[in-house]
Here is the input.
Amino acid sequence: MLLIEARQRSRVAGGELVRLDEQDRAGWDRDLIAEGHALVRERLVAVASGGAAPGRYQLLAAINAVHTDARDARDTDWSQIVQLYDQLYAVEQTPVVALNRAIAVAEVDGPQVALAAIDGLDLAGYHAWHASRADLLRRLGRSDEARAQYDEAIAATANPAEIAYLTRRRNQLSHAPHPNGTV
Here is the structure.
């Protein structure tokens, strides 16, 4: 919770959700991050000393620790995050955990691999599933499909900050030319 709270001021700007990779990391609370990292390290030492395997919350904290350890989004250790999601999935085999793992996989293995994983999940009513598909489709240059997924994500959430973010992302998509050459 400390690691999530540390990012709170940077999560919304101008009434719009700000993605983790777009957040101003200078606005993160470094004291809370240091405290959160110390707790994660303490738990990992206990596990290494023969303590019980980490549970759901400890693994989520470790994932957040990896994110908050990177001074820049490009420095994120995505392979480590995928490994932590593998451990989390072993503890909690839910489609939402699989979705989050696939998002990390996109950073390691590319959007096509992640899209295949996401498409196999039964989350069609979940706005984050549509938003994730939209982003992967956008990254693959499939703008029309991405636009439709952004529309689905917008329709599936009531959060104004998410709606503003998703609408902006949808509106940034280039329009594919029609067969007759018009846009």
User: Anything to note?
Assistant: Residues 2 and 35 are 7 Å apart (CA to CA). Strands lie at 12-13, 16-17.
